[in-house]
Amino acid sequence: MKLAVFSAKPYDKRFLSHVHAKNQHFHSSVELAFHDFPLSSHTVPLAHGADAVCVFVNDTLDRAVLEDLNSAGVRAVLLRCAGFNNVDLEAAEALGMFVANVPSYSPEAVAEFALALIQTLNRNTHRAYNRVREGNFDLTGLLGKTLRGRTVGIVGTGKIGIALAHILRGFGCRLLAHDPFPTSAFDEFGEYAELDVLLARSDIVSLHCPLMDSTRHIMDEQSLRKMKKGAMLVNTSRGGLIETHSVIEALKSGHLGGLALDVYEGEGALFYQDHSDDIIQDDELMRLMTFPNVLVCGHQAFFTEEALTEIAECTLRNFDDFTRRVPCQNSLVREGHLLVKRGSHPVRI
Questions:
Q1: 99: part of which helix (H) or strand (E)?
Q2: Average pLDDT over every residue of 14-42
Q3: DSSP assignment of 230-268, as one string?
Q4: Which CDD domains match (predicted)?
Q5: Does the pLDDT at position 340 exceed 60?
């Protein structure tokens, strides 16, 4: 059995190869073929001869790509991530293809990174770091606020949202949450509220919901206007949750006090690649990075040893289930029907 791994970075190769070698009794017949390129209509030929493809968040798996994969003999799609908004599940189901994700991997990793963004932006440590390297020890412009007593709104109380709530409780924050499917796991940390109420009351809003039709641009011009003046917005979930043009206008007007992004709506053409010698054509991203109260990272919140180990292990377990034709608990389609649909809340991420 051959597994073609797309968008493979050195760390993907390292962790997948390690888990593969460590579990030879399960995967002895599996051959891993790594490709640095993302999967798209142009790179489908690289999957010829493979039984399955392993993909990441910015690979393209629309109907056309899935049909080409199916024609090439590929029968399974293994997502080494939780999100699946880049996969046409209806087309995959119609083609009889196996699709599985990694629904949860070290939610603490993402939650801890969200906190790191919050405190970096709040206490201006990124600016202080650059200053002192040039011999400038002036504190002017570095004034922050104590986190204790601040109200933090968490949009999405899946595993990551709950992990962040657990951390923020230790800082003495007041916590609000919004989720169309409330969970009792949040009850010990704070209270649920309608989104408009959460936005109006929160000093910091952190997004942890999946990207789907109902959440795309959940933070648009209208939502941003409802936020408390001077509040901070943090997104470590999916770039499409924020309408970029509107957030730029909110920053320019001074209504939005700070923005921390680990994801970006147009990241597919940029993230996970070195563009330091290129002229980046994305004007909105470049404009965002001119603001002193904006942090942009390259979708690295998940990037810990523990998370990459979990991702590799779960991905190969999913492949093992496929090859042995046994039920897979992480399947997104199965036996002639979809297990999840766009617009639903299939997993707690």
A1: strand 98-100
A2: 87
A3: TEEEEE-S-GGGB-HHHHHHHHHHT-EEEEEES--TTGG
A4: LDH_like_2
A5: no
